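Exam revision sheet. Question 4 asks you to relate a sequence to its structure. Input first:
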Amino acid sequence: MRILVSGGSGLVGQDLIATLRCDGHQIVQLVRRRPNPEAPISEIAWDPERQEIDLQSVGQIDVAIHLGGASITGTRWNSKRKLMIYESRVKSTRLLSQELAALEEKPKTLIVASAVGFYGDRGEEPLTEASSPGKGFLADTAVQWESATNVASKAGIRVVNTRFGLIMSRRGGFLTKVRLPFEIFLGGNLGNGRQWCPWISLSDVVNGLSFVIARKDISGPVNFTAPMPVRNEDFSKMMAKTLSRPAWINVPAPIIRLLFGKMGDETILHSQKAFPEKLQAAGFNWLNEELGDLLNQELTR
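Answer key, structure tokens:
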């Protein structure tokens, strides 16, 4: 197939493009710079902020995958940062959806990254794709993010909103951020440690995207998480065991809120006991179902 990918330079995008090419697919990459005509992968420029894109010159596209969005971590959220997080997701998704819907030969499938932040802070409640949206900035953003694909759905394009959990990889993302405190003997629980953490390996994200491309009966929201979420306190114990370090410095919730504001509250303290009901029902096979095994695989070699 001929597959259009945005966000190809990110952690997921790099592995996804490599996998799709190995599977024999032709890739066209959306980039926010001047396209390189000598690049091994065809490149098309776009500017979501200015709402500029030219898909008419791309030719027939079978599948479009949108992985874009500014990082939600790294700095406290002020009004400017929150606007960047929101617009980098919603405006780019709306632009791509509108342009795909306007094509004479429309793609069969549009896959857009979303996040389990859709559910907000839900404590002990089991969360599936049928669960209602939660409250908070990330939940509100995810709702609008997914709604921005409606124009594509109405045009007859199969839309899949992949709600990613915490992606685990030694090459980047969540795992690299939490590894350092444990390495320097400062690891421990965050908050009371009882919050649920929905996680997934990078390999299962990439394989899951390939699986969803092939399964034309899957549409709408899909939780991209491992079948067994873990509590933060259990994650901390597994990290400590894997790295042979103590997990003894617990950071109380008030300190996290003082240091990081709402960003810390919604990304560190919120509890989301999310389950991948749709992927399980469709027969997807995870490479990594046990977090302890994955940590050993990613952190000890």
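Marking note for examiners. The two ends are 35 Å apart (CA to CA).
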